[in-house]
Amino acid sequence: MTFSKELSRLTFKLLVVACLFALLPFTATAQEATAQATPPPPAAPRNVPIPKPTERTLPNGLRVVVVERSNVPLVSAALMIKNGGEVDPLQLAGLADMTASLLTKGTNTRTAPQIAEAIEALGGSIESGARWDASTASVNVMSSRLNNAMEILADVVRHPTFKDDEIERLREQYQDALKVTLEEPGSIARFVASRVVFGEAPYGHPLSGTPQSIAGIKRADIVKLHAAYYRPDNAILVIGGDIAAADAFKTAERFFGDWQKPAAPLPASSAKATVTAAAGASVQPRIVVIDKPDAGQAAVLVARTGIRRTDPEFFRGIVANSVLSGYSGRLNQEIRIKRGLSYGARSALETRRETGPFTAEAQTKNESGAVVAGLLLGELARLANGELPDAELLPRKAVLIGGFARNLETASGLVSQVASLALQGLSFDEINNYINNVQSITAKDVQGFAGTRLDAKAANVIIVGDAKKFLPELQKQYKNVEVIPVAELDLNLAQLRKPK
Residue 368 maps to which CATH number? Predict the structure, then answer.
């Protein structure tokens, strides 16, 4: 019995020791997990030099820019017209976007299906569309098939037919999209914000138009806009990827060299009107409520003028916006994570040829609409006057740098970056200087930008939602609150209200 008891004790001890050894990996794993609860700081960014673009101007005035990168056998080419939604006539919002979208819907020699089939046979893609300051048609294809793709690109830009059936088909698509969009409080708030900030100036209307403006666009309007702005001396062709510069210039000359420059001058620029509106459309900030009783949530948006892309404070601006926006940005931290008032809050600093808008927005339950408006404005003020430690600033810079680098990974992304610099008249050196420019921004720079260019006192507030649930609280905070029933809203007018 004594031997048996000793054996049992020994067996028990061995089991205990075995269990302890078995637990050691789990203990180590737990300690490692605890140690990683605070993520390590971002590593120092590394510059990856991009070959400097080369350029020529053809006799007809077409500017051709080529950037060589031979790591992947792909080429992207973009033909950019230096005007977009800012040239839409006053009552024809969406005209530039429709015109650009119709480029790939048929030419003198190819129908829309034939264009699609030809590009598909090349294993490539073709796209066209407009933004505020430019209209673009682009192709992406293997470098060995570039000539075939460029023939199609030149055809759609120079010889679109704008057939009535294609116009009507696209009109229906726009109307269907707008019908859905104008039921969303967030989309309504953004449209209203543009009118509040820019009034009747070019940036004030929706880029994609309104139901009324899209219905009013005629084929003659499309043909007129194309004839006025789609011309070689108002265009930039950017070719990038696996192609030698000499070959790219020969290709450009082959397909665009005989593109005739019209004798008539370009239409007068509307840039001055944009600047005037950006500087003075909202001298007194407006508090606008769009009453939408069936809204399940309220969209809350703060808007004011921002900066141009060529502004000397551009890099201060984008770093300041990065501190505010993104999942770990201040707006989301305060409104979503700390208070649970929204699924997400964000901001945007849209830099255009002329002064663009700055917006900060969140969607919340109707009852907390006024509270969220105060929080958005409060974070703008805190960015200007509060502390900004390096532990917060460095990761927000890393987000900008990482996003910029990802955009350069593809041939189309590289072409897009080069085209944007060309459009704005900026040096191509900015691509290789981007990381250093972002890294050089200090907390003091961000605070100074926020205090002078994002001043909360000059910001407008727009809330779209069930007004009875937040209006009393909003009126306690602000005087002269404008309330517009959604049925009376007219996005075609700066005053936003349908005439009685």
Answer: 3.30.830.10
Q: Domain range holding 69?
A: 54-259
Mean pLDDT of 348-365: 96
Q: Is the pLDDT reported for residue 16 higher than 90?
A: no
Q: Judge if 238 and 298 occupy the same domain.
A: no
pLDDT of amino acid 281? 45
Whether 200 and 309 share a structural domain: no
User: Mean of the pLDDT values across residues 399-408?
Assistant: 90
pLDDT value, residue 32? 46
Confidence check: pLDDT of 223 > 80: yes
- For residue 45, the model assigns a pLDDT of 66
pLDDT reading at 208 higher than 90: yes
Q: What value does the mean pLDDT take over residues 324-329?
A: 94
Q: Is residue 140 part of a domain?
A: yes
Phi-psi region of 496 (alpha: psi -120 to 50; beta: other; left: phi over 0): left
Number of domains making up the chain:
2
Residue 262 has pLDDT above 50, yes or no: yes
Cβ atoms < 10 Å from Cβ of 59: 9
Q: Structure pTM?
A: 0.86
